Amino acid sequence: MKFTAEQIAGILMGDVVGNPDAEVSKLSKIEEGFEGSLTFLANPKYKNHIYTTKASITIVNKTFEAEGPLDTTLIKVDDAYLAFSKILEYYNSVKLNKSGIEQPSHISESASYGENIYLGAFSYISDNVIIGNNVKIFPNVFIGDNTVIGDNTIVFAGAKIYSDTIIGKDCVINSGAIIGADGFGYAPNETGGYSKIPQTGNVIIENNVDIGAATTIDRATLGSTIIRNGAKLDNQIQVGHNVEIGRNTVIAAQTGIAGSAKIGENCQIGGQVGVAGHLTIGNNVKIQAQSGIGRNIKDNEVVQGSPALPYSDYNKAYVYFKNLPTIVKNINDLQKK
User: Fold this and answer.
1) How many helices (H) and strands (E) does the chain have?
2) What percent of the chain is predicted at pLDDT more than 70?
């Protein structure tokens, strides 16, 4: 699909400087721009590229003034970065604008679905599933019995959603995500082995939640594992049974959260963080990457390390960690003297 500079300026409420009929059908970085592509300039460090880019259209801030000849048509807006993000969102919505039910696919007779849904080939919709309006389910998705999926949610190819899961409106479930598999529950038995504890709960994902590719969210032993409104989970995250993640919390890749941990609202958790089970992490907490959390954390704390220490304490201690051989040598020399 092609768009002219004039059309894009209309979407962004911007002003065209150059050819209003310039057309684009692709997006590009400014330094890799090519004819027929749309790019943007927001970071001054990339300013020189605007004079050499081959992109047909470039979105810039209204404060930008060219210091040399340009081969690209400009669209001037209040905030170039925000405007380009809006275009990316629009581009994605057009790209994902699929509808209809492809074959082969299976929909149980007891399942129900709303208007304007898309169901990709080789997908399986089990008994008593309820699917809302404008839901997009891409090929090779499995949706288990009694699952509910709210309006405007997208489930990408290959995701597996086990029985009794509840997913709200405007969510994104990326490829390979597994939601509602059994939690890791075993008890030692008299034979010296382990007996499996039945996992009879479910997973509840509220509205406007993103779940990354290959992320797994286990069903609760009893009750629910809950991901609250607006939470964003990166790829390859493990969420254990009965975990609760608060509103608008964001978690980076390869983090593992053990069973029954409670994470508050508006937290920011870096990559490869490990959270032990049954802990409580307060609201507005920031956890630096590769930290190990083995204690409860109060509201507004910033922590780092394994086991995690208050962020400022860790940085002070790190000065000594890296100089430890020299410090030990100096102590030994003093002892000899």
Assistant:
1) 4, 40
2) 100
**Tens-digit pLDDT profile for residues 15-25:** 999 999 999 99
Instruction: Mark whether 49 is an active-site residue.
Output: no
How does pLDDT run across 296-331, given as a tens digit for each residue? 999 999 999 888 888 888 888 888 888 888 888 889
Find the domain containing 87 and state its range.
3-95
Q: How many independent structural domains does the chain possess? A: 2
* CA separation, residue 225 to residues 138, 206, 239, 260 (Å): 25, 11, 9, 8
Q: Length of the chain, please?
A: 337
Question: Do 175 and 296 reside in the same domain of the chain?
Answer: yes
Of the listed 49, 106, 241, 278, which one is catalytic? 241
Q: How many C-beta neighbours within 10 Å does residue 257 have?
A: 29
| Cα dihedral across residues 74, 78, 81, 83: positive or negative | negative
Tell me if 74 is assigned to some domain.
Answer: yes
Shared domain for 63 and 182, answered yes or no, is no
